[in-house]
């Protein structure tokens, strides 16, 4: 009976074309299993991607077929707004050619803006309640981690669905470590490896206090023997600024910057600890059980508060805590990651298919009204 119901669900949503917009680097691994599951249920998936950070490199590495549309416009708020409307305009030919039945993203702003204009049902998956957007780009539907249901302004939204766990639980169970990364980066097993992700200084939630914590961290680890740092700048401009302003970090390859995009999960797994000024890498480390310290100084989200309460994430609030809270210890890298399936992926796919059914009924109702 269970299998019959599954097939009935697929049949009730047959022929649905889903447009996924890859707007930022973390969206690539997140959507890989979602794309696979949607296709397994008989849906068609088409992709667009924005030229931002390592989106293209990771999408190519994961063998995704996508259309390149638009790019990142930097941190200036005026240029951000211009870039939002500009990219929405650039996406129009794709939308008119593909004619998707449903749009899906994890925080894209151009996609819902365009979908609202052309009356295409749009789902935004998100996991940070303090992200800002403009009224015109509010999606019709939203999917978020269950922990966000306690946020009052979100609990009042009718068209929101929740999934168990965190975003990273969608793809972590499929992770298989590739030890070739160590040789590729010139790292040795006997070194303490610290992966460092700088703050996103072009994001709207950026707080310069994060930079102070980063500089203190780098000062500490650079003067500690037996440690190698893998630094992952947000973009080329940030990398060049680090090299120009802090040449001491790179003496005798104490700090290395990968020459191309690497699979973040591999790097995290073979690290002894992670220190990050962002969100995704912190939560990936927490999901993998790798010690992780957050130097993010924007508004703390509910997901990070939950991970901190559970002891899976340590928040660094002040410069002195860089010395007192962060432990530069070697961890046991011999064990295997936990590949047990987690509820997040199934919950999200089920929510998407539920929304498909609702929107199909809604569309049918409009058609019947048009005939009257």
Describe it for me?
The chain has 372 residues and is an alpha/beta fold. The chain folds into two domains: 2-172 and 341-371, Rossmann fold, CATH 3.40.50; 179-324, Rossmann fold (3-Layer(aba) Sandwich). It is 42% helix and 16% strand. The protein has 14 helices and 13 strands. The strands form two sheets. It has a seven-stranded parallel sheet with strand order 3-2-1-4-5-6-7, sandwiched between helices. A six-stranded parallel sheet has the order 10-9-8-11-12-13, with helices on one face. Strand 2 (44-51), helix 3 (55-61) and strand 3 (67-71) form a beta-alpha-beta unit. It is globular, with a radius of gyration of 22 Å.
* CATH topology (fold) name of the largest domain: Rossmann fold
CATH class of the largest domain: Alpha Beta
Helix count, per DSSP? 14
Average per-residue pLDDT, rounded, comes to 89
Brief description of this entry?
The protein is of the alpha/beta class. It has helices at residues 2-12, 27-40, 55-61, 77-98, 110-118, 152-155, 180-185, 209-222, 236-245, 264-269, 280-288, 302-309, 319-324, 343-371; strands at residues 17-22, 44-51, 67-71, 102-105, 122-125, 141-145, 160-163, 192-197, 227-231, 255-256, 273-276, 292-294, 314-315.
């Amino acid at each position: 009976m269970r299998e019959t119901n599954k097939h009935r669900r697929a049949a009730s949503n047959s022929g649905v074309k889903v447009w996924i917009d890859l707007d930022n680097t973390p969206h690539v691994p997140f959507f890989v299993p979602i794309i696979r599951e949607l296709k397994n249920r008989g849906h068609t998936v088409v992709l667009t991607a924005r030229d931002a950070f390592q989106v293209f490199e990771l999408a190519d590495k994961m063998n995704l077929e996508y259309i390149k549309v638009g790019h990142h416009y930097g941190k200036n708020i005026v240029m951000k707004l211009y870039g939002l409307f500009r990219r929405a305009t650039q996406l129009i030919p794709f939308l008119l050619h593909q004619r998707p039945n449903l749009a899906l993203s994890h925080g894209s702003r151009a996609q819902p803006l365009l979908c609202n204009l052309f009356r295409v049902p749009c789902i935004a998956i998100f996991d940070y309640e303090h992200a800002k957007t403009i009224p015109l780009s509010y999606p019709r539907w939203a999917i978020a981690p269950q922990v966000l249901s306690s946020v009052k302004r979100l609990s009042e939204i009718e068209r929101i669905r929740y999934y168990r766990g965190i975003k990273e639980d969608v793809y972590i169970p499929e992770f298989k470590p590739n030890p070739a990364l160590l040789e590729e980066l010139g790292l040795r097993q006997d070194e303490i490896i610290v992966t460092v992700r700088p703050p996103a200084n072009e994001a709207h939630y950026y707080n310069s206090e994060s930079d102070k914590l980063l500089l203190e961290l780098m000062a500490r680890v650079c003067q500690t023997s037996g440690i190698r740092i893998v630094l992952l700048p947000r973009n080329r401009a940030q990398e060049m600024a680090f090299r120009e302003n802090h040449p001491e970090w790179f003496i005798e390859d104490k700090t290395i910057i990968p020459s191309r995009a690497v699979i973040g999960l591999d790097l995290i797994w073979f690290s002894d600890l992670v220190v990050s000024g962002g969100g995704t890498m912190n939560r990936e480390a927490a999901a993998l059980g790798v010690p992780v310290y957050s130097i993010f100084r924007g508004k703390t989200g509910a997901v990070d508060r939950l991970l901190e309460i559970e002891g899976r994430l340590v928040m660094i609030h002040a410069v002195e805590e860089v010395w007192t809270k962060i432990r530069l210890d070697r961890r046991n890298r011999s064990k295997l990651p936990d590949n047990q399936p987690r509820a997040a992926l199934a919950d999200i796919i089920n929510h998407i298919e539920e929304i498909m059914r609702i929107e199909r009924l809604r569309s049918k109702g409009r058609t019947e009204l048009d005939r009257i």
